[in-house]
Design brief:
The chain has a single domain (3-137), classed as Rossmann fold, CATH 3.40.50. 42% of the residues lie in helices and 19% in strands. The chain contains five helices and seven strands, in the order ββααβββαβαβα. It has helices spanning 20-23, 27-36, 70-91, 102-114, 128-137; strands spanning 3-8, 18-19, 41-46, 50-52, 57-58, 95-99, 118-120. The strands form two sheets. Strands 4-3-1-6-7 form a five-stranded mixed beta sheet, sandwiched between helices. It has a two-stranded antiparallel sheet with strand order 2-5. α2 runs parallel beside α5 (128-137) and α3 (70-91) crosses α4 (102-114). The chain is globular.
């Protein structure tokens, strides 16, 4: 089974422009990245930039989905879903795993499932300690 893993961005960031995969420096993001890198396909979900290829160079920023209105989060999710559908269909992938909290997963997974894409959101509903444990056990 070929999977696309999407990793939510994190608040803790480097202070200089760098590749997106290196910009986010929290313990959670590092563990999620290790999990995602087990597969061939992974991208980052950024509240500011949308869907980011891990190697894309970006500046540090301070923006979260929690700061956005429900309508803005829905628009963000629709835009991401459109891009993810293109990736999934072009690469003939079987499913999408979204690592992140409810703001990053709820609406996005609904859009993807409506397009017939299998989605897993294994961290939703878990506290940060439980998320870190889940990620550690799988990397």
């Amino acid at each position: 089974m070929t999977t696309l893993t999407l990793v939510a961005c994190a608040a803790k960031k480097q202070s200089v422009p760098c590749a997106a995969q290196d910009l986010y420096c929290s313990a959670w993001f590092k563990k999620a990245r290790r999990f995602a890198e087990r597969g061939q396909w992974w991208w980052i979900l950024s509240a500011k930039h949308g869907l980011l290829h891990p190697s894309r160079i970006i500046d540090p920023y301070d923006e979260t989905l929690a700061q956005k209105s429900a309508d803005a989060r829905r628009l963000w999710s629709a835009r991401i879903a459109f891009q993810v559908c293109d990736i999934v269909h072009a690469a003939n992938l079987d499913k999408v795993i979204i690592l992140g909290g409810k703001n990053y997963t709820r609406t996005l997974s609904s859009f993807l499932e409506a397009e017939g894409i299998a989605v897993e959101t294994p961290l939703v509903g878990l506290g940060i300690g439980q998320q870190l444990k889940w990620l550690k056990e799988r990397t």
